[in-house]
Write a structure and sequence with these properties.
Layout (H helix, E strand, L loop, with lengths): L1 E5 L3 H13 L3 E5 L2 H10 L4 E5 L1 E2 L2 E2 H11 L4 E5 L4 H9 L4 E4 L4 H14 L9 E4 L2 E4 L4 E4 L2 E2 L4 H12 L7 H12 L5 H15 L9 E4 L3 E4 L5
Parallel strand pairs: 1-2, 1-3, 3-6, 6-7
Antiparallel strand pairs: 4-5, 8-9, 9-10, 10-11, 12-13
Helix pairs in contact: 2-3, 6-7, 6-8
Length: 228
């Protein structure tokens, strides 16, 4: 999946390019309106991230061209959060508006949400199955032995973080990063332990001897289980 990033601040652009690449997106970076227009006219993109203020124009110009080319989602990145700018961008067809400074995980969540609305997916995989547990990301539901297991938003996000990194050891810091945008600053290292216990209580046959969410002593946790 290809993303066009139009951002004139090289430090911000470099950091975003790295983060997007880590998420599995192919990223093309432009620093001004002119180069962005060339890319849009000659290449195909699944989503555009546009800085509002550019050295030779504005993100509005780029957005207008993007929408002329087709039904391509646009997310504005800008330090201007006043109502006039927000309304103008949305009236032009922008799909979201993220104000600087922003957290990377928040931006990634916004991107994925916009792509889902367009029927696009950053991953073709929408169902994860581990032993008797099945996670359906399109429904945002979790089942065990075909029985729906009710999870809170934070519990669901935590399980999704595990599922997206199946078999990999995740540190507590990585897990906290994966769920911060659901609970903000209310989740810390201590409460993470509580939520892992709650997940085990709901999903494991024997929570005292977990077969799915396993502790890797001194390193963190990992999700295992025979796929069904």
């Amino acid at each position: 999946m290809r993303i066009l990033l139009v951002e004139d601040d090289r430090i911000i652009a470099s950091g975003l390019e790295y983060s997007l690449t880590e998420e599995g997106y192919e990223t093309v970076v432009c620093g001004n309106v002119r180069s962005a227009k060339e890319k849009i006219e000659n290449e195909r993109f699944d989503l555009c991230l546009l800085d509002l203020t550019l050295p030779d124009g504005s993100g509005y110009e780029v957005c207008r061209l993007v929408k002329e080319q087709g039904d391509i989602p646009v997310v504005f990145l800008t330090a201007c959060d006043d109502e006039v700018n927000v309304v103008m961008g949305l009236d032009m067809g922008a799909d979201d508006y993220v104000t600087k400074p922003f957290r990377i995980r928040e931006l990634m969540s916004r991107i994925k949400s916009v792509l889902r609305r367009y029927g696009k997916s950053e991953s073709a995989k929408s169902v994860f199955a581990f032993g008797p547990v099945r996670l359906n990301t399109l429904e945002a539901k979790v089942y065990k032995d075909d029985r729906e297991i009710p999870l809170t938003a934070l519990e669901y996000r935590l399980l999704l973080t595990f599922a997206a990194n199946e078999g990999q050891v995740l540190s507590r810091g990585q897990l906290l990063e994966g769920i911060w945008d659901v609970a903000g600053d209310f989740v810390n290292d201590n409460t993470l332990t509580v939520y892992i216990k709650r997940l085990r209580d709901k999903l494991e046959d024997n929570p005292q001897e977990p077969a799915l969410i396993k502790t890797v002593r001194g390193l963190g946790y990992k999700l295992e289980g025979e796929k069904t």
